[in-house]
Amino acid sequence: MGLKNIDLKNIDLKNIELKNTQPLGKTGFQIPTVGVGTCPLGELFEEIAEQDAQTTLETAWDNGIRLYDTAPWYGRGQGEHRTGRFLYRKNRDDYVLSTKVGRRLLAPRSRKTFQTAPWQGGLAFESVHDYSYDGILRSYEDSLQRLGINKVDILYIHDLDTGYFPDEQDLLGKLKELESGGFRALEELKAAGEIAAFGAGINEPGMINRFLDRYPLDVFLVASRYTLLEQDIYADELLRAQQQGVGIVIGGVFNSGVLATGIQDAARYDYGKLPASIAARVRKLQAVAADFSVPLAAAALQFPRGFSAVASVLYGPSRPAEVTQNSVNFQYPIPAEFWLALRAQGLIAEHIPLPD
């Protein structure tokens, strides 16, 4: 489903309006409706030459992208360094920048034997979780240094979930650490005008409610949990966030790749191999997409915006061609009948809002 398969007759690539913005929850802050995440540029799946990384970001800018999301964890600092090297000479009022807090990077205890896994490349720094008052402020200041930019717009609490803390007592301990000081640090940064909003990155079902039970956040960055492939958290969690005025940014719209590539040997789901049950569902999605001549990636990019609380969607390119293709996908005209066909086959539940 590459560009050669897409009918470009009705799409003016020179006039793609990706700088449109929407309000982020009740913050009053405007955020671009589409952006790029830099996890792949941190070399999660493969090593990427510096020039290739910069060309990818430059292509995003040239295609109107003005929202960039990164994190200390991405490539153990590499993602922030690369994002900053690209953006620091741009007019700071021309883009929105988000990063994450909750991890600090330290020199490894054994430099000779240190491994960067799970990153295929990245930088040789150890990562420690720290959600305390001092830890959040240190994480924020360190990010500014790595970026070479003295202001970020949004901070997300990163990876505070069962995936990283499978033991319930460990998870509760980190949540308490956040409640005892980390939240206050974020609130002070916002009150001082250092940031426009703060929230949490969400990887696992159930975590939105656990955060909302403890603190009123501005935004959730929901990774791979509200997509064309799976929407289970909509009724139990996303609607509650909307009712409380919390903005939603959807990341991982391709479920780590399979909704961009379709079924193939190298297809990834949730950063790993494709389970049989997921593959069967993707095949059904592909069949409907083929019937309507709709690229699966276009449907994946556009689907989350049917929910009015979604202010923006993010995807993570690793090559310039992916940016160019997704600029088309984001604008691709999809008929209402396509979404209704997915609903008729049980691929989108009745209560899930559909794009216009």
TrEMBL record:
Residues 34-341 form the NADP-dependent oxidoreductase domain. InterPro entries: AKR, NAD(P)_OxRdtase_dom_sf, NADP_OxRdtase_dom. GO terms for cellular component: cytosol. The keyword Cytoplasm does not apply. Keywords: Oxidoreductase. It is an enzyme of class 1 (oxidoreductase). One of its GO terms (molecular function) is pyridoxal 4-dehydrogenase activity. This is Aldo-keto reductase. It comes from Yersinia thracica.
